[in-house]
Amino acid sequence: MDPTLTGPITGVVPLILVSDIEESAAFYRLLGFEIGNYQPRTGEKHWVWLYAPEASDWRRGPNLMLTRGEEGAQPRPGTTTLYLYAADVASVHATLVASGIAPGAIVYPDYMPKGEFGVHDPDGYHLTIAQAGPETP
Questions:
Q1: Phi/psi of residue 65, each to 5°?
Q2: What is the pLDDT of residues 50-78, one digit of tens each?
Q3: CATH number of the structural domain spanning residue 81
């Protein structure tokens, strides 16, 4: 066992079912993600791993996997909510708006006084994007 690991689980990477890998990857690119790996190597992609190249350690930074799933499998919006933290929530909001995406307004609930907003990805999955700070990832 690797002595630097402190528990039986060393990370969590959400895997979501999407209808169009390229369209979804383009949406998540607006949030700072890039494709780090994909399958198959030729032809239409059926699975991609997204990572944040700007993270100081890509292995511990935000990661997300997208899959088209088996033939006939459909995304299930409403079944997944991703809660993401951003270095500058207002800038991410502005980037989405400038790209023609309509996120919700930035709100400032008691548990997130620096702000958060909701947005849906191309398949209708709900994302909440919140301001990162000293007490958040």
A1: -115, 140
A2: 999 999 988 888 999 999 877 667 777 77
A3: 3.10.180.10
